[in-house]
């Protein structure tokens, strides 16, 4: 079979492309299959040694011309436990190796998303939701038909008889009013509260026990209408009971009546609350009992899919930014049904089927008990209450997929297909109403559920074309119930199964449940086939749902150290029939819990006996505890044993930081087929239970510490944080509420369940052997290059066919010009603009000449193409090529709008980090300060650039540089920098924007600055004398001149005269006359003409970029300790170089700010006057100054040097809310035998100073207490990973983290771009 592969030309056009054909934006590459191997964990050597997809061997010449291979075996060796660590988790070597080298470096793919516009019959009669892609209705409960106009009678009661007037018992049984749209029971008309539920026992007579302790029984043959309908306040009523009267104890009510149905709260169902729906209808609909009733123009199970009728301002994030491709009117011969939204996405891409509601929404809407199959409900104030529903993970993963950036509406581009059948609902709801009867299945719920999955399979095969392209191998099904996919129909077994029960049937080759209704042994092979419950080569065990416990999170139980874990082994749970309230079945837990209790039981069984080997530090008990999580956190090892199928003990253990001891043969635990369990867990054979304690005591302290550290690193992978934070965001948006659990979760940053799932999918996408057989590979692909893999290319040009619209977008990526015969629609402003022919533009002509492009004719009515020959560029080392996967992952995880700010008194090395990060951002912006901010950066050839006004992102040719309104601009200095950059081959034209609101700094401002310092004499501030303060003074007293004034040279002389006259009146030494004014005006006329192409309304531009989801990096000047408000006033700058200055200096909203990185030297320096508590005077300071070359970039003045001041650093972190730190110049300390940290301040009388004081006199008097750490006294400048650093250097870094409470993610060990360690 041949597969069609879609390729896009990379940009800029580089010498790495040996042949590629891209015509009309789409290239078809024929790929031929090779012999397959069906074990994806044992991919042949050729694939595992690099990032090539599995079928690359047959097309080796194609792939090698496109991407050089990386030897992953040597680059990412396995550790002694056979693991390769990726993003802190120990993976199986082959998987961890591939993820480390290939996962986080994938480029965006150009995806055309389908926006539907097909209408439904009668708009579904208001009784359903229209799927605008298919033109089909999803009808609410009780309605059916093409337009949802037909009523379905869903009875509450089974057939009746004289002996059973309401039929035999079923959950929906109803003696009152039956709502036949949902088979639910209510009080009904004629009562005071007709919509009050009459659920189950509420409507029937109760037989109270005669003997104490005997059970209360309900007589399902006798209704209790006389009581529940009574208006007599002395009788126990329900349907006419006034809540106010009942709460005041003036009316009796029937205790067996309550509010089981969703959407109602209060003891008497008097409080309407929001129901639970998938993603709460995404803000585009109303949740009606579990079914989303979408507003017009929206559809999908969670109302997240827009149609052509939807306002694009509300489009979900996973569809933005987008460009809509709309044909010219003359080409339209039929009504416009669908539009294509052109987006950029990273693979893997997942298509989520919008199945008929019987597989999901109706199961939620028809629940008879609000806690069934959902992981949350809502209280009287609509605040979230998380449930203990173990099966809630199915809802969590579903919600995350629907809201994920990896979701696609284009099945042709999808890598995987998710089939959303909610068996967590159906298997709990089976037989709860007549329309869900188990009669045909002889009461076996697993048989009933198998049929539902089979119906889903039949539906997608009949209505969608995607199944047959891989026989379902790229489809994903979720099975939440106790025995996972054991009861999957044989037709879908090729697919990937997400389960909690990884039974391979290698030992337990039958149904393991002790509950007869779930036993699948009796399901015939013609329906089920003979497949096992789990295939580790294709399936994945996901963690069970665990309710977020704010208390446990805040106490950091997962991080409790070894010395606090006093219990050797711990297990608390049902131990079977030998114990009080134990499960009576001998087959419960496969008998494993019973064997464990028999040996080590620490609480008496029914016979009063303890386990044969019971001991003090081993707890095996069935007695419930109020401190379960705390008991786990106090233990070294915790038992992970099955229950009735799987149990949540693995999750309990990991989330409390306890080393799991797995005792269940042949059964895989969460991620066990992808993670290296030996690194953080213990597996014990069931037959070895008597030797359990001997095995555990054989581990030495080093091995235990190793496992505990790994548990601590990966525990978040067992939490559904993504889904939880989606709910937190909804709560904050709707109610302004940030609950304790949300606050704690917002502090977590490591990969969770959903991220881990996506990482596994990405690995499978490129390594599943069946894709090799069928030729399935993603249409976008990138791999990391090793430095030695970069090879010189032969001279000449490479001919490339590429569409003009693609070249035009690449030529001017920020203007987002649409194709010639199409409209471009901005998804935020919803404005339309018809583009002119880009081939006629002067800019295009310049670009065409550079790349030698010739137009080609095209038969396609909507596309034009050109033939280009890309000029070869000399190879240069880029960060993307040379950085490790950790660097790419770290940088890639930064928020859309991020900032880099200084944490001390400036000169921390911010420019280098900005230069590196800029290669991953679209925009780099300066927000405050002026030419007093000197940033030194180096290009790939090691050439030094000293920048003062131009943002440090200028060396990255794809980055736009913005000088914001908060900056004061000295034009002679700006043009000098631009000329210097251009002279060194750095193009600035079209890449720098200067705000029209920015104030101009004139030469006289610099002169006045010096005069001011001279006036202060011995009290001088020690400014850079670059005129910054006087310019800001002009701005504040409102006689300053802005960039926009250069466009009005008729009034410019009067404004400048006023400004100069004011300076002359203020300073006697400033000589001003008519000749100076004339010269300045003439000079600025020339400046105005040259600056005009750079001037822009940057407030508008920045906000447009942000709305288009472009990545923006803010480069701070100076540092927080020089802040006009928070610095050591008056020895400060004149602007706000802390976080607050970003918004005012760029005109962007605080809510868009994300990650802020604080840059701090490994020691402290300061230029000019002012307090410096940790300053080293004399020879020690001189040595540090020369070792670090501490001389100002802007002034050349020697910097004062001292030890790192932790008090000041914590103060800066508090003000700015840094998400991480960049520790620079760690290599400067390499020659020191001891290094000191200033950890606290004290007054001369010994009184502790708890914060950084504003009082300068106090600052001068206080004493610094130091902590002394050993130095490493070895050169670290060649280190490229954190593990390469000496232990003493690591300890220094980690001690700073501990003292400050902010992680250090970047460590500078030299001036070059590559001299940066990512931690």
TrEMBL record:
PROSITE patterns (UniProt xref): ADENYLOSUCCIN_SYN_1, ADENYLOSUCCIN_SYN_2, EGF_1, EGF_2, EGF_3
Binding residue positions for Mg(2+): 907, 934
This protein's UniProt keywords: Chloroplast, Disulfide bond, EGF-like domain, GTP-binding, Ligase, Magnesium, Metal-binding, Nucleotide-binding, Plastid, Purine biosynthesis
CDD domains: AdSS (cd03108)
Binding residues for substrate: 1193-1199
Known function: Plays an important role in the de novo pathway and in the salvage pathway of purine nucleotide biosynthesis. Catalyzes the first commited step in the biosynthesis of AMP from IMP.
The protein, known as: Adenylosuccinate synthetase, chloroplastic
Record organism: Linum tenue
